[in-house]
Write a structure and sequence with these properties.
By secondary structure, the chain is an alpha/beta fold. It has 16 helices and nine strands. α5 packs parallel to α7. The protein is globular.
């Protein structure tokens, strides 16, 4: 390692040969790597203790708190990667969007974007807007050593859905009304969000993140033709924007079984799969040249240890022919999950797949 190498470069050198990074590159691994979406958060008592009295969005701006929460599941579960503690709406808040995360509800936007004039709310994101991210990742890379850190951001479609609807939605009627009825406004909105997402990912990578994941949480609400025409270009722009860094890029959505091939086309190196599609079938849909991530149903963790192991074995069996596999849940860790069940799951996957 060069003595004058940047902290980001040092972190990426240290993590390059980790099981997680090798799996992302579709190389042979010593064991199947494991991490969990939402592993740094609500299921851990130490997380609740650390965040007592601190609103969610404020907690994301405190570097030492972010570092502590990010490290908690690595210490407890011995997962193969850390995931940066944040929220997909953090870059929107950072550029001045009036929003908050309300407990039990989720992100709520005070002034939804519904017209072309509303686009003025979306200015460019600069590194200075999220200087706390750079500081937090600096703290993390000093602690993580050879454990990779995954940065993340929300995909343009999912961010647009929140901004247009004003909060969570089950039908996305306002977002789809613009997508179908005013395609020029829709395209301009997603293009701006692609730039914001790209900038947020670049900050994380340049600070030392070893990989990044783009969450298109609500893309499953779309028909394939609509995704290809109205969403894929913006997602592809994000992945292209960070391609030059050479870090693995992961693409994940919920209920996206019919979109897996298109999500692969967007440009990620790894496609995340929820629990609805077996991994061998997902590989057929995505096509060659991509690693897959997933995909145990998060609710399985509420069953007995024997049942968890049986269902985990099914996932591992379906993954045997994959070019690369990262074990994960098919969505985030649920708040009432027993943390010990996650610890046992990591150990079980490592043991079962040791080579």
């Amino acid at each position: 390692m060069s003595a004058n190498q940047s902290p980001a470069g040092q972190q990426q050198t240290a993590t390059y040969d980790s099981a997680f990074m090798k799996a992302c590159r579709r190389e042979p691994v010593p064991h199947t790597p494991v991490w969990f979406m939402r592993q740094a958060g609500r299921s851990l008592p130490e997380y609740h203790k650390a965040r007592t009295g601190i609103p969610m969005l404020e907690s994301c701006t405190r570097p030492e708190l972010v570092a502590e929460i990010t490290l908690q599941p690595v210490r407890r579960h011995k997962v193969d990667a850390a995931v940066y503690f944040s929220d997909i709406v953090v870059p929107l808040k950072a550029i001045g969007i009036d929003l908050d995360i309300k407990p039990g509800v989720g992100p709520v936007v005070a002034n939804p974007i519904r017209t072309r004039a509303d686009l003025a709310q979306l200015r460019d994101l600069t590194p200075e807007d999220v200087s706390y991210v750079t500081e937090a990742i600096g703290l993390l890379t000093a602690e993580l050593g050879s454990t990779p850190l995954i940065g993340f951001a929300g995909a343009p479609f999912t961010l647009a859905s929140y901004l247009i609807e004003g909060g969570p939605s089950r039908t996305y009627e306002n977002a789809k009304a613009i997508m179908y009825g005013d395609p020029e406004l829709w395209t301009d909105l997603l293009d701006r969000l692609a730039d914001i997402t790209s900038a947020f990912l670049k900050v994380q990578i340049e600070a030392g993140a070893s990989a990044v994941q783009v969450f298109d949480s609500w893309a499953g609400a779309l028909a394939p033709a609509d995704y290809r025409r109205s969403v894929l270009p913006a997602s592809a722009k994000v992945f292209q924007a960070v391609e030059g860094y050479g870090v693995p890029r992961i693409h994940f959505g919920v209920g996206t079984g019919e979109l897996l091939g298109l999500m692969g086309e967007a440009g990620a190196d790894v496609v995340g799969v929820d629990w609805r599609v077996p991994l061998d079938e997902a590989a057929r849909r995505v096509g060659p040249g991509k690693a897959l991530q997933g995909n145990l149903d998060p609710t399985v963790l509420f069953a007995s240890t024997e049942a968890v192991e049986t269902k985990t074995r099914e996932v591992l069996d379906a993954a045997k022919g994959l070019e690369g596999h990262i074990f994960n849940l098919g969505h985030g860790v649920m708040p009432n999950t027993d943390p010990d069940s996650l610890t046992r799951l990591v150990e079980y996957v490592h043991t079962q797949t040791a080579r």
